[in-house]
Specification:
Blueprint: H1 9-29, H2 35-51, E1 66-69, H3 75-85, H4 91-95, H5 125-144, E2 156-161, H6 162-166, H7 168-179, E3 185-191, E4 194-195, E5 198-199, H8 208-215, E6 218-222, H9 228-240, E7 246-251, H10 274-283, H11 296-326, H12 328-338, E8 360-361, H13 362-373, E9 380-384, H14 388-391, E10 410-412, H15 417-428, E11 434-440, H16 448-457, E12 462-466, H17 484-489, E13 495-497, H18 502-514, E14 520-523, E15 528-529, E16 548-551, E17 558-562, H19 566-579, E18 584-588, H20 592-596, H21 600-606, E19 614-621, H22 626-629, E20 634-638, H23 647-654, H24 658-669
Parallel strand pairs: 1-2, 2-3, 3-7, 6-7, 9-10, 9-11, 11-12, 12-14, 13-14, 17-18, 17-19, 19-20
Antiparallel strand pairs: 4-5, 8-15, 16-18
Helix pairs in contact: 1-2, 1-3, 1-10, 1-11, 2-3, 2-9, 5-7, 5-15, 7-15, 11-12, 13-18, 15-16, 19-24
Length: 670
Amino acid sequence: MNVGVGTTDLEQLAIDTVRVLAVDGVQKANSGHPGMPMGAAPMGHVLWSEEMYYSPSNPEWANRDRFILSAGHGCMLQYCYLHLTGYDLSMDDLKNFRQLNSKTAGHPEYGLTPGIDVTTGPLGQGFANGVGFAIGQKHLAARYNKPGHHIFDYKIFAICSDGDMMEGVTSEAASLAAQLELGNMIYLYDDNHISIEGDTDIAFTEDVAARFKAYGWHVQVVDDGNDVAAIRAAVYNAKIEIRKPSLIKVRTHLAYGSPNKVDTPGAHGSPLGEKEVKLVKEGMGFDPEKSFYVPKEVADFYLECGKKGEEKEQKWNEQYAAYKKEFPELAAEFELLSSGGLPQGWQDAVPTFKAEEGKIATRKASGKVLNAIAPFLPGLLGGAADLAPSTDTNLDKFESFTAEDRTGRNFHFGIREHAMGAALNGMALTKGIIPFGATFLIFSEYMRPPIRMAAIMKIKPIFIYTHDSIGLGEDGTTHQPVEQLISLRSIPNITLIRPADANETAQAWRVAIEHTGGPVILVLTRQGITTIDQDKYGKATGLEKGAYIVSDVENPQLLLIATGSEVELVMKTQAKLQEEGIAARVISMPSWELFEKQDDAYKEKIFPKNLKKRVAVEMASTLGWHKYVTDEGVVIGMHTFGESAPAEDLYKVFGFTVENVVEKAKALIA
């Protein structure tokens, strides 16, 4: 048996049992990463046996410590501990690792496996998600904790890898965590020196401990990853450091216990092989002919750890009952928000805009809506990547969330779009919080991994993207989005809304707040847009159906379809065509995704099958529009990048003028 430092015989047997279980799971699947669980098992043991608060019978316990396996490729480590401590994850589930319809996917998946707090896949995402989790805990504690009632005091634990440390999002997130003094973060760095291509020295030789000290983290180094006592002491020290986030750098050995594959990339992404598995078991004192074997004393030990966690939850439930008795209104609010409910009557605060108010950019309208509804939605909070004045996302009646003020609802994420997106996901996974984050649409490119992860998890951060087209003008090609709309629309579970005016923007916020089943993306203009007169034209409430008739005529000869600012353009086109005796219906189509949820009867009402003369106008890539314009229609969009010039000049160059749309419409009719 490989005896670690500072461990009892039972502890060592327990650690080695996890190592062997993980190896068996990967070997049976003939796919996976056995090396990381073998090296990191002592860290996992310390966390699940004594340092983390969790309740296997209630994985959603509000005050549980959150655990993030940012090194998600090593997920057999987490699956083994979930199984052994009593979560609803059976031995058969471990045996079905990486198989179809299994609870044990190739990376941890939120919503699939009980006890998984977040889906981690691309390296660095989990690390940055933890910042959002930590923000969530601090904000809940500031809002709901009272003297003598520490309802929310949980911590955020994570195990990270060399790969996490190399990813840029980790640097962004680490800097932000230190700035906000998130002392509730305790990260263990599995420093095993091995990546897929070989020793990390070929690409990664920096002093990680010095780097994190420079950020402002509390840093400790454990030289021996098998020294359970040292790991335990480091976690204890991290717990009492309440101002700085903590990094514990633990020197481990990939595939520890494998005679021929320890410290080799061969154990990183491939099974050890049956012969090597037997050698591992023999070296650790296990029967090499037995697979998925758990000694009874180990099973009893870890189940008892799980039961102790459930006892902690029961004690917390008693504390919460006393809290609820003393602070019934706050308790009722938390229970409502954490269940996904919304305060009654909040919709009454959604403003209506009058046509006579003049032009208003949808980003400006969004800011007015946001400030109108925020006082009625205590869980609504967010900020921007250093662009709050430009995206109009500051909540004027509320303070900023800082190291000194955790009640603040305005967040200054800095120019860290990637980390902002990942942090928003962690905040969205904190029940009771509806987070939003804003930047320019073109910079959504910096946020693609967290957008995708939010969509996979079907959680609801609200992404606000302004400066949505060539209409932003002089900033030019680099800042004018062209391909972003169709790129974002292509992501499953995404709901993208590009409102046509101020009232559609107000309705977009209503839909976003009430939406479930994935992220909502609001795409907004920099330039002013005429507010459509709702006394004369279709009501903006039609936005909830994704597409609706703004302006109709008797016996229409063609359909004019647009999103965003281009709706104003096609309405002017309709009037011009009417002068020439051509009847056109105008359709605002702010959300393809919402429209596709409607029944066939509604779709036929908006897009009659017998009316195939259609013109769609959108200042973006034309990809995808042909589904709606049919082979008898035409799409006026962007086929190149933009240019640096005033917006009105660009509209003429790229054909977004009444004259051009009229010409294309008349050609169809002819």
